[in-house]
Structures are given as structure tokens and as C-alpha cells.
Design brief:
The protein is of the alpha/beta class and 746 residues long. Helices cover 39% and strands 18% of the residues.
Amino acid sequence: MDLSASVETIKGVGPRTAEALARVNLKTIGDLLYMLPRVYENYQATIPISELQPGKVMIRGKISELHVIRTNKKRLTITQGTIRDDTGALRTVWFNQPYRARQFSEDREYYFTGKYELKSGRYQLTSPSATLVQDVAERSDASFQPIYGQKSSLKPETFRKIMAKLRPDFAKIPDLLPFTTEKPDFVRKGSRAEALFALHFPENPEDTKTGRKYLAYEELFELILAAKLNKQENRRLQSIPLAFNSRATQAIVRALPFQLTSAQRRATWEILQELERELPMNRLLQGDVGSGKTVVAALAAAQAAQNGHQVALLAPTAILATQHYEGLLELFTAVRKANLARLQAVRAKNAENTTKIPAGALRNASEATPGSDRSHTKANTKNPPRGQGTPSSNKSAQNRLHLPRMALLTGATTYKRRLKNQIKNGEIDLVIGTHALITDDTAFKSLAFCIIDEQHRFGVNQRHKLLLKSPKNTAPHLLSMTATPIPRSLQLTIFGDLDSSLLDELPAGRQPITTKILSELEQADELYPEMRKMLEKGQQIYWICQLIEESKVMPATAVKTQLKKLKELFPKYSVECLHGKMKPEEKEQIMNDFAANKIQILVSTTVVEVGVNVPNANMMIIQDAERYGLAQLHQLRGRVGRGDQAAYCYLLTTDEKPTKRLKEMEKSTDGFHLAEVDLKIRGPGEIYGSLQHGALNLQVANLSDTKLIAQASNHASEFAKNPENMLQYPELASRTQKYQQLTTLN
Ligand code: ADP
Ligand code: MG
């Protein structure tokens, strides 16, 4: 069987079906074979209503009396109906699924699978899934049947018919996995043909398990192989070595207003050493929110500048880029001042001893003026930057403290052209910016090092564009920073044995954040008094909503609605809003006012999610919390607890029972633990990056299966030793390539 053949070559699939299939990305026979059944049901196991026992059950019957009840809990809807079979009738209930009321036709029979339980004194079937009886083939031989999902206009039955047509050819499906000695036993004994057959035509649950294990292995193998090949390709590139300079590093560390944590020291050292090499660094700096990644990045950036090369720091939002710019400017200015003071002290001492200090020393110190003041473009003209400077002797060049001259480049930057010229001429050492930094017309004189903050916010393409800006035939060193920790299992697979540095220690004095789930109904009694206390103490509050304006499609509270409400509730305080549709200047104004405590309650969408640092804000309220992923909730919560005051996070939910995710949030503040949980609940796409979301979500493999991962990893390593082997496996090559593109740059 040729898996690359078009679906139209299957008998009975005409141009119209083919077109419908193409629309859901099913173009080849191979695509269809890998479209696995959603679930398997044992339709012989239905139970007559009169004989039901509490627990998970399947009923075959008709449904009627469907109606939606809107509760006074504003956004909770309940859909009710009555299911009947020959033996009796039963009430069924769905929460927040109003479409259920229109889903069924009263004269058709369905299989309903759900939980039969006692609720408020009555038995009911809770949130059942439903399958049209007609969609289940009436085969008496197999009681165990695959159920395909509906894909846009394509009915489950269509898939079943196509599979039946392909069935005689299943035995001819070739294996995908290459032969090497490392192939584990169960793979050697099995075959892809058998595995796929077992999944599409199983006779019992055991069949589907074996089939899934084989395909999971295949999937992991491809993924890991792709990561290994990417790593090999990266090793063939050259980068500009950036020599470590202990004096420069020490000067900066001394000038910091705090002591580095030992985790920061260790991570910095790992990075500074690796920057010295001619192989491009490709490292992830992982550290929970507030662990102090920025200063580590600053020390690395300084090393590049010290070597006369340029650094780009890419941040996902203008607010964050601006904060980095201001923070680093302050840092390097402090270093410069401290250095000057030290030199003056040395001079004074030398004067006492009537010895002259070297002529260059002081001049060099003043040359170390970083960037400029806030209006960076103007300042650069006031203070014309020098060229790279030709040192009179190598020794003095090494010792001369050259702190980065900085610039901020966002969509809102004025005089962009002039700034871009300065970047191109090498008059700026450290450019901090947003997407504006990766546009085609931004060129560098000598970009040796890229830092990407909140790397998961960027797509591979965007990151790639930045890396291409280094001088010909070189690749820049890359440091990706993330507060969304990557579970070990992902590091090994998708990230191909990633080089990573970990900040597993928060700076001393941080207060733990108390997290509490509240139902919407408890707001008035529990939340408002707490908010009032907070405000009376002079502290500030974030209130997060999902939407900007009310919408019919999504029944969540909007920023604008909540803003009005909170203004009425807290008339004594300034309540303002922030969201993505505001102009950059407006956003910046609001953020600045919040930072300056001119605003006490900030009602915002998740635009505040990343990086924002306002230590006086110690309460975070997230409305409709069940709608966010764990990583995002954790990020949002990380906005508070940044000072030395107790901090609180309230998760408001409209769900009757809090979800597993929310309960985990309440229990743990450990980002790594939450990431592992998130991975289990939602799959890797979510963690890897919003832009790859979906593409990376594995069909069968479970990334917590460490044994299978280890086996696949061995096998892939063995195979990757001779990449030319790939030529013999064209299907594997093309599938691996797809993954390579998705996971390159790790
Ligand atoms: P994140 O890792 O979330 O990016 P930041 O780099 O923004 O964290 O640091 C958070 C805050 O902690 C900043 O105000 C920073 O100045 C401060 N900070 C960083 N390192 C230390 C330290 N070792 N001791 C005390 N405060 C620190
Ligand atoms: Mg940060």
C-alpha cells in the first residue's frame, strides 16, 4: 500500500469527499490511516434504564423534553432532558453546554454514556456523551467498536466506510521504523501494519493497547530523531566567541543592589563560559517568575558588548521590552557610577602616594556610559556614540570596561530609521525590542548574541528571523528565557536533550502567595472585604478578565463590564483598565500610573501576564479562572508577591466544582510541578509555544511514559549516527522533517 497516494485513489472516495477530507488536512492514505478512532465503545454493554446502578453507564434510548435553564448564577446554564427506553425514563443534565438542547432529534435513538448518580435527592445521568445509533455499524461479530470523531462536515460513518474499503490492504502497510540493533523487542516483533489494524479493527480492548503502544513508540522516535538531527545541524555552525572578562563581570556584580542567589551565580557562570566557544550556544534559562532571570541575561549581554559585538534582546510585549530597557539602563548606569567612584578613590589614593594613574583609566570609565536617558534616540545624538574604538594596546582593550550602549526598539519608537542606522553601524551594543526588532530592515553590524525572553511567546519563524541577522556564515549564541518550566520528559524529547540552566531558588525575603478558589457567588462576602483591607493598607490589586468587551459567543466577564462594577464598588480608589486593543502610548501610561500607585485597581486582560513588575501590587484576582491553562495562571499569579508583603491570588470560577487545574493551583506554587501537571492535562503544544499549539500535540504518545521515551531515544541516537541512513527511509525523512521545522532552535 502506498501511503503517499491521494485519498481519491480509494474506491468510493469521489472528488467531493476528497475535497471535504482535504479541508481537514486529510490528503493521503497515510493521513487517513493515522486518523485514529476517538474512542472505542462496547455497544453490547448497554443497560436498560430499569436496571441501572450508580456509576458509569451506557444507555440506548430516545431523548425528549430538552430545555435550557439559566440559573441566577449569571452564567451557569443547565440543559435538561429525559431519556426513555422500553423499561423506563431518566433525567439527564449537562452544565454549560446549551447546544445540547439543539443537538438531538427526538425520534432517533442514541447511545448515551455518562455517570448515573444521585443529585439533590434524584437520580440523573450527568453530562453524557452521545452517539447516534445509526452511526454505529450493526455488526454482530464485533461488540467492541471504534468511534471516529466528526470532522467538520464529515460524519463518523464516512470514516468507518473508508476504513472498511482499505481493510483488505492493511497487511501491505510498510514499516516506518528503521532497522538498527537498538530497536526494542516489542517493536521488532510487531509491525506498523498490525498496529494500525488493531486500532481500526480491534476485537477487544487489549488490541487497542498494543496498537497504541507501537504507534506511540513511532511518534516518539520521530520526534526525538528530529531533535537530534537539529542538534547535529546546529553543531556544524560557527559563532563568534565572546571571551570572558572577569573584571567587567565583577564590576557589574559589585554594583548590583542585591547579592546574586547561588542559582543565579551558577547559571551565569554556565552561560558566560559557553559564550566563549565557537559553537553557537543554544541554551534555555528556566526560572520561575521572580527568580531573577534578567540580571543573568544582563551579565551575558555585557560580555558580548565587552568583546565589541552586539546583542539583541527580544521581548513579547512593548511593556515588557520597556521595563527591561529601563531596568538594565538603571543597572548599567549604577555600574558606571560605581566604577567611576572606584577610580576616583584609586586616584585619590595614588595622589597621596604621588604616583600617577594610567592616563587611559578615567577616560575609559566615562566612556562606559550606557545608552542614554528615556528618550533614547535624542540622547544618542546628544551624546554621539563612538565606533568600536581602536584600543592602543590589547591589554588595555581587555581591561577597559565597555558597558553596553542601549536602545529600545518597539512599534512605538520614533525615529526608527535613525535608530536602525545606528544599529547597523554598530553604535548600539544592546538592542531591546519587540517584534519591531525582527523586521527585515533591522540589520546589525555584528550580532553575536540573541536573548529571547518568554521564548514560548514566539514562533519558530520569528526566532529564526532574528538569528539570521548575525554576520555571514555565523550563527549567534542564543539564550532563551522562560518562566514556564519545561518538564524533564519534554526536555528529552521535543527539546532533544536541551542545554538548560535552572534558577531553582527565589531571592531571599519573597513572601509565599496564598491562593484560593472562590465561586462567583462568594465574591461579595469573601472577596470584597479582602480587597478593601488590601486597599486600606495602601496596596494595589490586579483584576484579570478574559475579554475586552462582552461577547455573545463567550460567556465570560469583560474588562469593561468589570471596570464599571469595581468603580462603583470602590469609589474612593482609582480603578482603570488595560487591554491589548489600546494604543501603545495609552498602555504605557496606564502601566506607569499603576507602577506609581496612581491607580489602585488595574482591570486587565492577560496583557499583564508576562514580566510586569509592580512590587506594591499584592493581590491578583483572576475571573473565569477555569478558562486558563496552568502555565498562564501561574504566570499571572507571579505578578504578585514581588515585594516583601504577603500576597494573595483568588481564582474565581463559575463552575460548580473547581477543575483539577484550579485545585492544583491552590495546592502548589511550584512552577515545575504545575508544568508536569499541565503536560498531562493538555499536551505539549501548550507548553512548547502558543504558535505551535496543535501541531505538536501528539496523537498517541504520552510524554510521561519515561520508559518508552528512553527506548526511543536510544534507537534514535543509534540511527542518527549516520544521517545518510535517512535516504533509505523517505517516509520517515519527510515526517521527521516536519518535526524538525517545528522544534528547530531548541
Ligand atoms: P524573572 O525571572 O521573573 O524575569 P526578574 O529578573 O524580573 O525575574 O526579577 C524579579 C525582581 O527580583 C526584580 O525586581 C529584580 O531586580 C529582583 N532580583 C533579581 N535577583 C535578585 C536577587 N538575587 N536578590 C534580590 N532581588 C533580586
Ligand atoms: Mg522576566
